Amino acid sequence: MKRVALFLSLFLALVVPASARLNVVSLPGRDTVQLTIYNSVDLTLVKETRHLTFRKGLNKLEFSWANTLIDPTSVEFRPLTSADKIEVVDVSFPPRVANTLEWRIQSEIAGEVVVEIRYFTSGLKWSADYVVEASGDEKTAKLSGNVRVTNNSGEDYENAQIRLLVGTIKLVEEIAILAQQGRPGQPTAIPMSAPAPMLEARRSLGRAMAAGVALAEDRMEKAKEIVKEELSEYFLFTIEGRDTVPNGWSKRLPSFQAAGVPIESLYKFEKERFGVNVVRHYKFKNDTRSKLGEVPLPDGEVKAFRQAEKDGLLHFVGATRVKYIPVNEDIELVLGPDPEVLVRPVMTNWEKTDLRFNNDGRVIGSTLKETWEFTVQNSRAIDVTVDIRRNFAGDWSIETTAANDKMDNAKVKFLRTLKPREKQTFTYELIRRTGANATR
Amino acid sequence: MKFRQLAPVVAAVCLAAFSAEARVKLVALPDRARTVVSLAHPDFTLVEEERVIPLQKGVNQIDFAWRGVSIDPDTIQVRIIGNTNVAVLNTSFPPNENALVWSVNSPAAKEERFRISYLLQGLTREVVYKAVADPDERSLSLRSYLRLRNDSGEDLSDAEVGLGHGAAFKKSIAHEEVLEMQFAKNDAVPIRKLLTWDSKAQPWDPEYQKNVIGLPLVYVITNGAPQKLGAYTLAPGKARIFLKTKDQPAAAGEQVSDGVAFTGEDMLGLTPVDREARLNIGQSRDVKVTQRQTKNDRTNIRRDRNNQEVLWDTDEEFRLEIENFKKQPVDLVITQHIPGYWKMVQTSHPIVKKDAFTFEIPLVLVKETGGTNKTVVTFKLQRLNIEGNEPQNY
Question: Are A175 and A192 a contacting pair, CB within 8 Å?
């Protein structure tokens, strides 16, 4: 549904009152459209070009966007040809008319001019999603990335170049709120919802447009490439060619695919974080060794599968969400508890010694010695790594022969690797000095 | 009633002209060539279905729609099976419809096999176990059944249903049908029968109880290879235990025949390989445990300036009298809970420390040891540096 309209009027200053709008001489369509869709905020920069025919002298150009989500404060006009002969005199938001503006444009020439119109709209969004297919032994995986563009902006953007911006930008005001105002500075008196649904009409149009997209894709033999480039603190993904995403529709395109990505089947146990569960992770790195590492991976949903025994069939492992992953950063997909790997901590002994008394004879300090035994059991048929973390507070120290990494003054990590069906135990003694015995 | 709710429709668009007047040249409703249901994940059902779809040369639109079927649309994936130069270009999602459209490019007019996968809700599974124990209760025959209930809205015909281990079943299950199938048969699985008595859960002196105190009866099963199990994780489910009996003849001249008696049931917890499952299937009333604390003296008392006790030790002694009225020996595990810092001084029987505040005394009770013939267990311990705020557990 096209709702953004541009009317070029002749401005006959000598014979008609200034307020009149008349002589619509053309309804020029878009020649090109470019959408730059942001994922951190509800914002899309629309850039369109149109061929307009100007008369020498003053021209009026009306731009309206009823039932869309365009920010009226963002609309800009710029001539791309004869730029030195075209000048915007002013822009008017007519009284009692919402979602319309008029540019008064002084032209030194008569003839065709290519112009660019830019504006912000809300209602378009994009998201990334990933599919991980781990091999049966969970040592490698095929990783596929997709991007999905959803258009609820009220406007059909046909044959648009679609660019997706990865990064976090700041907005002082939300575009959706500005769009509801209809005119700059207008209080949002009439709550304007998203564009009214026009189900049947839109659906049939959508189908037709989808078919139209198919026509545009007829010469394609493979999925579109997504060109990724770095841009300051952001990354810009440009989808090859042109696309149409009718209003109300969304479209998912393959973004990348990497096979043979080395992964680690990592399990984590940390009571304060996961409770009593041992939580399964797939760990890999966004680097070139992993056949990735060209660009960051935007945050998105991940579905993880594992290859079944034959025929390339799959088992579902879990779904999760990943944070934005910079290049060379580790990726840990949190795939939920797996009871097939067990970590069972048991305090096998507890002693209270070194009692300290004050002058009144009351107990003011003691030293507690706890002996802990950890059973780690792998009931799976593959190798696993188990990351066990223990958090301690106060004046504490541990004694153990088990390899460990004191991560900070309150956390110790024990990393164990287990063969299929292997069971291990390790112990540590935790000394906690309390009350007057504590030195820190 | 037959449902056909999942319907991929192939619409190959006319390639002749690049105009908006695209025409549908062909509409086909390809049947499923194969349906595979994976129940490997305990909470999710993954369906992979294969359909042979005729393609036109160029870009084809494949419409996949579902109505009244609980599919998670975000999980729908499509793959093309085999080496092919057919490519899925993109996926479009129309508004307000349970449908999507794949744009698929084919270099030639041909048929191609597509594998469409998705997570399906409403196909619930339940695992149930039935076991028949031998009369000596040292082994049992275990039968494992999968009970599938199809409320997904979709009929599944000749679906290969897999649990993530073992061979898949090829079954048809209609919408709203419940289907039960045996998926494992394990004979002569060794079990250990135990009675348990816990000092926190059971009264210490049965004489003061109105009713006879039953001791929990537990069958211990290990999911391991020596136990003729251990090939896969035992899924949680209800286990019904029967005991082999002899059925007496109903009429004169008939033979004694084999029969079974139901002896109880319990929920078997999820049991991975090489781990132990405990089925608490009932109670035994033929074993009586009486526990008494025979000494509890404070020693080494330390007092503050106001003569208040602030720290002390204790000497404690316990005595248990255990009677087995059965005609068979019995394995009994006594569990004791001692809070705080303590040391065992003397025991009549070996103990197994389970954690800092718990220990067990495993006993084998000789048959018919009631009355004066009872088993006596004693232990003495010292609790140290008591302030009255000792931890009971950790």
Answer: no
